[in-house]
Specification:
Chain lengths: 108, 121
């Protein structure tokens, strides 16, 4: 099974800061990597698919990059409404999915 | 716009069977999408449970495969989850979700509201 390692597990940043989260796959997953935002008590929301494609309606301050085993998720100017936990997720060729452990983003 | 509405009991006894249903509205359950279940234990991360296609084909998380059955009822426009022999470790918020094809793989683009299921006597 493919394991997804996300870091850091939590971070604190100021409004307007650039925030970066990384996700590492245990084997090459090409660009088959998605990112989700989950606010407390809510279902996750798809932000980015195929490593770098912004889902319709998602603000452009969110961005993703990477391929192979190493991926990065960036919030270019952190806003108060971005407080949430962010997850990476992959689907392998056997149609099995795994999530990263999550990164909790807080305002400093 | 597709909407997913979950239903099912919030309390299940140990060694019993957890059963949840997800009703699909605003779109076709027979479209080219898979339909998934994902769970989240209190204070923890997300775990994919498995998925079903409108043909009835399924894929499951290997760690849960022996206890999970996901089925689909196209006439009722709903899909269901059954998890047998539950223990306290199965206590979680359970979500249903639609898998949309993005490129050559899938992403969970629409989610149900979540159901908190507690395993307790």
């Amino acid at each position: 099974d493919i394991q997804m390692t996300q870091s850091p597990s939590s971070l604190s940043a100021s409004v307007g800061d650039r925030v970066t989260i990384t996700c590492q796959a245990s084997q090459d997953i090409s660009n088959y990597l998605n990112w989700y935002q989950q606010k407390p008590g809510k279902a996750p929301k798809l932000l980015i698919y195929d490593a770098s494609n912004l889902e319709t309606g998602v603000p452009s301050r969110f961005s993703g990059s990477g391929s192979g085993t190493d991926f990065t998720f960036t919030i270019y100017s952190l806003q108060p409404e971005d407080i949430a936990t962010y997850y990476c997720q992959q689907y392998d060729s056997l149609l099995r999915s795994t999530f990263g452990g999550g990164t909790k983003v807080e305002i400093k | 716009q597709v909407h997913l509405q979950q239903s099912g009991p919030g309390l299940v006894k140990p060694s019993g069977t957890l059963s949840l249903t997800c009703a699909v509205s605003g779109g076709s359950i027979s479209s080219s999408n898979w339909w998934s279940w994902v769970r989240q234990p209190p204070g923890k991360g997300l775990e994919w449970i498995g998925e079903v296609y409108h043909s009835g084909n399924t894929n499951y998380n290997p760690s849960l495969k022996s206890r999970v059955t996901i089925s689909i009822d196209k006439s009722k426009k709903q899909f269901s989850l059954k998890l047998t022999s539950v223990t306290a470790a199965d206590t979680a918020v359970y979500y249903c979700a639609r898998n949309r094809l993005v490129g050559a793989r899938w992403a969970f683009d629409i989610w149900g509201q979540g159901t908190m299921v507690t395993v307790s006597s």
